[in-house]
Write a structure and sequence with these properties.
With about 600 residues, the protein is an alpha/beta fold. It contains 19 helices and 24 strands. It is about 35% helix and about 25% strand. One of its GO terms (molecular function) is carbohydrate derivative binding.
């Protein structure tokens, strides 16, 4: 959730500010920087990176710097709780992503030793521990500190004693990049690609010592590690004019074809026929939008596969007793590849002997290293906090994976497989048609934005789409919204139908049209406003969907819902790219 960056290079202040601007897509409420020149200077504030820049004197310079974008977990949003933090003697500065679970115990011990705390955070503890543990060797102090921390954390530290950056990494993302006489560290590997010639993902349980000439990796018990570097992909410019969310929605036609092409170019399903034929259960694991794509893929899988298929919210999978053995496959879905709950779920499947399969939009992410197999969804960089194009690409990729598994288990014929592939070729035109009709959706959003509550309902394959539509609306407009299977309305939710409530009815199955019309009439009779999305005749105000393959309506029908959320939020004056209280990459549990 937080973003961290460290640099040893010329123009370290400007490069740190550039990195923080990149990292702000993750969501944040505060920002700060610590610069080592003649001493260590710290500048920080609540608010945006632009506010931070205004606090830094123009001629501030140094040999190295660390920076941070904070998303509050311990302590409220204020300047005092922003990172970086200085030790009491001013000789150590740290920034931190993650949660230190034993900080209260450590804090009491440090206070008893005379240390003064200036914030409510768990992170400040690390700065004082480094001071307490320093006995003339910064590396040894860092190693000792690493062994005192419990939880999930990535820490960057600079000090007054040498010209190195130090890092501590455990179950929180961290990467290091190198160039000529320069080194960079960040919680986001993509942040490094504009400067680094080579990049390495730091393993769990590692302390990093980095100078301009060399980078050394150590286990927490002080043994040297060998870590592989790779050439990073060059990152695209995230500073396009206008709202990133709308830009990313309009990229969907191109992205879904990239997803299909990328899937075939990378060798399709990365499992052997033997592995596929012995499967007895498949899980689709994810959080938020990634879970919703898994929910849709699971519904498609149940139409073909003769194994148990279940979509589970990753955090619930970790803490419940779901069966896992050598005949289990888990698709672990995450746009960033850094979602903490999904990584923990993947580790649980691996521990039980199951096969883990990452479906992610970020190569070289933690999830890619944790899982046995990896397929990229090829959505391209996504910067708006509310995911759009990545969802469509996840869905295309998951349906292709499910179809290949069904084919190899003799549950899907070659003719049916060919039909599905051809259907995917029609998706860009169908989605493009919807985008051309954005003013129709804008008009619907004008009605939706004043609703006291909005419900999204659908049956069968439409329910996961309804779930994603509801999530998008609540994420960025802050309108109360829920999704239900249409048949559940009579079991409680119908009591909420009244004037001022809007219900969006999804109806893409020809076999369920009459049932969905009956549902819409029942809602309207309680004076709620009804909007129907369907390629068939509907009830109430209707947005007519273009016709596509019956298994692919989820890829198409979600697009007007993404636009509906966008226009409703804009109409209410919301920050659509950076909604309140939300982060793009949820790297803590």
């Amino acid at each position: 959730m937080c973003g961290i960056f460290g640099v040893i290079d010329e123009n370290c202040v400007e490069k740190t500010l550039q990195a923080l601007r990149f990292l702000q897509y993750r969501g944040y409420d505060s920002a700060g920087i610590a610069v080592k020149g003649k001493g260590i200077e710290v500048f920080k504030c609540s608010g945006r990176v632009e506010d931070l820049q205004g606090k830094i004197p123009p001629l501030t310079a140094g040999a190295l710097a660390i920076g941070h974008t904070r998303w509050a977990t311990h302590g409220n949003v204020c300047d005092e709780n922003a990172h970086p933090f200085l030790s009491n003697d001013g000789n150590f500065a740290i920034c931190h992503n993650g949660i230190i679970e034993n900080f209260e115990k450590l804090k009491i011990s440090l206070q008893d030793a005379g240390y003064r705390f200036s914030s409510q955070t768990d992170s400040e503890t690390v700065a004082h521990l480094l001071q307490e543990n320093y006995k003339g060797n910064v590396l040894q102090a860092t190693l000792k500190t690493a062994n005192q921390l419990e939880g999930a954390f990535a820490v960057l530290a600079e000090n007054a004693y040498d010209d190195c950056l130090y890092a501590i990494k455990y179950k929180s993302p961290l990467a290091v990049g190198v160039a000529k006489n320069a080194v960079y560290l960040s919680s986001d590997v993509r942040c490094l690609s504009r400067w680094a010639e080579k990049v390495a993902v730091v393993p769990d349980g590692t302390v990093v010592q980095a100078s301009a000439k060399d980078v050394c990796f150590y286990t927490f018990d002080g043994k040297k590690l060998s870590v592989n570097f790779f050439v990073p992909d060059v990152e695209v410019n995230e500073n396009a004019d206008g709202d990133m969310m709308l830009k990313e929605i309009f990229e969907i036609p191109h992205c879904v074809m990239n997803a299909k092409k990328g899937y075939f170019d990378s060798g399709r399903v990365q499992l052997s026929s033997k592995q596929i034929k012995k499967l007895k259960r498949i899980y689709f694991l994810g959080c938020g939008t990634a879970y919703n794509s898994g929910l849709e893929a699971c519904a498609v899988a149940r139409k073909f596969l003769d194994v148990d298929v279940t979509a589970v919210i990753a955090s619930e999978f970790v803490y419940d007793n779901f069966p896992v053995d050598g005949q289990t496959l888990a698709f672990c879905i995450s746009q960033s590849g850094e979602t903490a709950d999904t990584i923990r779920a993947a580790e649980k499947v691996s521990a039980g002997g199951g096969i883990t399969y990452a479906v992610t939009n970020t190569k070289s992410s933690t999830l890619c290293f944790v899982c046995d197999k990896v397929t990229n969804v090829f959505a391209g960089s996504e910067f708006a906090v509310a995911s759009t194009k990545a969802y469509n690409c996840q869905l295309v990729t998951l349906i292709l994976l499910v179809a290949d598994i069904a084919f190899l288990r003799n549950r899907l014929s070659q003719k049916e497989l060919d039909s599905l592939w051809e259907g995917m070729d029609s998706l860009p035109a169908a989605i493009g048609e919807i985008l051309q009709r954005k003013e129709e959706i804008h008009a619907l959003a004008e009605r939706v934005k004043n609703s006291s509550a909005v419900f999204f309902v659908g049956r069968a394959l439409d329910f996961p789409t309804a779930t994603e539509g509801s999530l998008k609306l609540k994420e960025i407009s802050y309108i109360h919204s829920e999704a239900y299977p249409s048949g559940e309305l009579k079991h409680g939710t119908l009591a909420l139908m009244e004037k001022g409530v809007t219900v969006v009815v999804l109806s893409t199955s020809c076999n369920l049209v009459q049932k969905n019309i009956s549902t819409a009439r029942e809602i309207a009779s309680r004076h709620a406003d009804v909007i129907t999305l369907s390629p068939y005749k509907g009830y109430g105000t209707q947005f007519v969907l273009p016709s596509v393959h019956r298994l692919l309506y989820g890829v198409v029908a979600v697009v007007p819902l993404q636009l509906l959320a966008y226009f409703a939020a804009k109409g209410l004056g919301r920050d659509v790219d950076k909604p309140r209280n939300l982060a793009k990459s949820v790297t803590v549990e």
